[in-house]
């Protein structure tokens, strides 16, 4: 699903709003989530899941092709944990 598909679905469901207004609302929501994650805050959307930022440690690894040892610096990764209701919905659709 693309962002425009999301905007179209919401605009269709909420017929009283123009697509450009729905698109602006989606942009604001996504920008707010990005800002919160950039500040290392956890974002929880009930019934969907939660997003958090985790720090990966620095490590060394070996390039399998060249055999050269490389150092990988520490970095931040996005972590998503799905809610129980989302997990149950995915299981139901899988059967």
Automatic annotation (TrEMBL):
The keyword Transferase does not apply. GO terms for molecular function: DNA binding; structural constituent of chromatin. Pfam families: Bac_DNA_binding. It comes from the Bacteria. Keywords: DNA condensation, DNA-binding. One of its GO terms (biological process) is chromosome condensation. InterPro entries: Hist_DNA-bd, IHF-like_DNA-bd_dom_sf. SUPFAM superfamilies: IHF-like DNA-binding proteins. Belongs to the bacterial histone-like protein family. PANTHER family: DNA-BINDING PROTEIN HU, DNA-BINDING PROTEIN HU-BETA. This is Integration host factor subunit beta.
